[in-house]
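About this split. The held-out portion is used to measure sequence recovery: a designer receives only the structure tokens and must propose an amino acid at every position. Recovery is the fraction of positions where the proposal matches the reference. Here is one held-out target exactly as it appears in the evaluation file.
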């Protein structure tokens, strides 16, 4: 079954912006990510100038599909410069079952919040943005700020055809190894805890959600990053380069500087996966 058909049958609560079948993305445009990184290093924002600084809040950073924690080295370095405490969740190759991944992320977030005695911020790139939204919906008692970069927040598969092929390969691997918790793992119609949390109404009264997107994104359809529950911020640049994009960094600093919304005690938090 084509992913377009799967999405039509998926238990999503929001209207999906259609993705044209056979969209190949913009692979050549994605090669400019190195230029974007150089531009960042030549910009005052890379050194903590011209942006608001934090007060030591822990920030959990989550990589995109097929990427690992090392892909976010520049972002973590910069977060330290502007006064935050970045932390990773132990990703080497982000291709595991989403339900398993978010459970692991939740454990890291729980420990961080307990250690620092406060809610944390979470920043996710691409697939990491899916995890960010799901975790914040599941545990608003742990997450104060949720920031997504270049992620389809309307569904899961508003992506280019080559990326869809990679997703299909990952699905076969999970099926072969038994890592998927559900028979439909890595499919839009999966009904695991991650999907339930991801498609749940977002707790906008308790968590600030920011979606950073680019119309030049060559992997994810930019229209799918726009959702009513988020502050949607447009930047210019590529999908891969968003991890080192000076305009995205400014948007991140501005989002993290926003005050917390009402916190929820852990004992009374809604647990969508319970």
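Reference sequence for scoring:
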């Amino acid at each position: 079954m084509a992913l377009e058909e799967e999405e039509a049958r998926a238990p999503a609560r929001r209207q999906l912006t259609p993705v044209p079948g056979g969209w190949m993305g913009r692979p050549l445009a994605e090669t400019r990510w190195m230029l974007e990184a150089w531009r960042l290093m030549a910009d005052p924002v890379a050194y903590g100038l011209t942006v608001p600084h934090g007060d030591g809040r822990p920030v959990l950073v989550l990589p995109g599909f097929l990427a690992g924690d090392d892909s976010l080295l520049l972002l973590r370095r910069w977060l330290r410069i502007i006064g935050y405490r970045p932390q990773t969740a132990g990703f080497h190759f982000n291709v595991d079952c989403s339900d398993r991944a978010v459970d692991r992320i939740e454990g890291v977030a729980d420990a961080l919040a307990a250690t620092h005695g406060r809610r944390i911020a979470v920043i996710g790139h691409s697939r990491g943005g899916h995890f960010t939204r799901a975790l914040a919906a599941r545990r608003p008692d742990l997450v104060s700020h949720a920031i997504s970069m270049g992620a389809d927040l309307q569904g899961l598969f508003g992506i280019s055809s080559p990326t869809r092929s990679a997703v299909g390969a990952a699905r076969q691997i999970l099926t072969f190894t038994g890592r998927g918790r559900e028979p439909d793992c890595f499919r839009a119609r999966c009904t695991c805890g991650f999907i339930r949390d991801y498609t749940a109404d977002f707790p906008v009264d308790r968590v600030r959600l920011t979606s950073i997107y680019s119309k030049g994104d060559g992997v994810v359809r930019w229209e799918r990053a726009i959702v009513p529950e988020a502050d949607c911020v447009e930047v210019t640049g590529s999908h891969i380069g968003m991890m080192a994009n000076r305009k995205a960094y400014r948007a991140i600093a501005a989002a993290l500087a926003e005050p917390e919304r009402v916190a929820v005690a852990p004992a009374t938090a809604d647990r969508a996966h319970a």
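Annotator remark: Helices lie at 3-9, 33-41, 73-81, 98-116, 127-138, 161-177, 193-199, 246-257.
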